[in-house]
Amino acid sequence: MTAPLTVVAVVGSPQSPSRTAALARLILDTLAGHTAIDARVIELHTLGPELPATTDRESAGGAVEEALRAVEGADLVIAATPVFRGSYPGLFKHFFDLVGQYSLAAKPVLLAATGGTERHALVIEHALRPLFGFLQAWTAPAGIYLGSGDFDGTTILNPEVYERIEMAAADVVPVAHALASVRATGRATGSAGPVARPA
Predict the structure, then answer these.
(1) 175 lies in a domain?
(2) Is the separation of the CB atoms in 38 and 10 below 8 Å?
(3) What percent of the chain clears pLDDT 70, i.e. is strictly above it?
(4) Among positive and negative, which fits the CA dihedral 27, 67, 80, 134?
(5) Is 77 within the bounds of a domain?
(6) Rounded CA gap, 114 and 28, in Å?
(7) Domain carrying residue 79
(8) Which of 14, 24, 72, 117 has the fewest CB atoms below 10 angstroms from its CB?
(9) CA nearest neighbour of 114 among 149, 139, 90
(10) pTM (2 d.p.)
(11) Residue 111 falls inside a structural domain
C-alpha cells in the first residue's frame, strides 16, 4: 500500500482570512481527491515577529524552526503567495532563504499565486519558478494564478480554476510518489545525496 504523501502548503499572505490561503486549501482538497495525503498549511504571518527577526538558520527557534523542518521533510510543497508590485512579498522570500540549501533538491513544488489583476499572472514564470529553480526543486509544469475577479471574498467562483488545479494535481501526484519512494529507498539503504530530477 502506498504511504500518504506529506504535503505542506506555505502561504505568504500577511493576514487571515486570505484569498491565497483559500487557493492553497482548494489545491490540498483536490490533491486529496487524487491520493492519500497528510496535509498541513503554514501561514507565515502566524509566525509573528519571530520570522523576520530570524537572520540565519542557526538563530531559528521554536515555531520558525518547526515550520522549516516541516517543509524540508515534505514529499510535496505548495508555494502559495500573493503578488505585490509584480513579485512575492519579502517575508515569503525570507522564509525560503532559511530553508536548507539542498533540502528542496528534486522535491516537487506546486506554484500558486493570487493578485489584483491578470497583469501579475506571469509572476509564476518570472519570479516563483526561478526562485525554486535556484533551490533545485522540481516545479510542477502547471502553475496556478488567480486574479481578484476569480473570487467572491475568499470563495473561488471561476470554474476554470478547478480545471487548472485538477490538471496540476494530475501532473504532480505521480512525480511526488515516485520521488518519495526513491527517498525512502535511499534512507533504508543508508544512501546519501540528491535524487535524480525527473525528466
Answers:
(1) yes
(2) no
(3) 93
(4) negative
(5) yes
(6) 16
(7) 5-189
(8) 117
(9) 149
(10) 0.92
(11) yes
Three-state SS across 59-121?
Answer: HCCHHHHHHHHHHHCCCEEEEEEECECCECCHHHHHHHHHCCCCCCCCCEEEEEEEECCHHHC
Residues 78-120: pLDDT tens digits? 999 999 988 999 999 999 999 999 999 999 999 999 998 888 8
Which residue, chain included where needed, has cell 512525480? 175
Residues forming a β-bridge with 197? none
| pLDDT confidence of residue 195 | 56
72 near 5, Cβ under 8 Å?
A: no
Please say whether the beta carbons of 45 and 15 come within 8 A: yes
* DSSP code at position 56: S
Residue 194 is predicted with a pLDDT of 56
The strand pairing partners of 81, in sequence order, are: 113
Say how many domains are in the chain: 1
Calpha distance 100→117 (Å, rounded): 33
| Least confident interval from 7-11, 64-68, 138-142, 185-189 | 185-189
Comparing C-alpha atoms, which of 29, 30, 25 is closest to residue 13?
Answer: 25
Domain assignment present for residue 58? The answer is yes
Question: Within its chain, how far is the Cα of 78 from the centroid?
Answer: 2
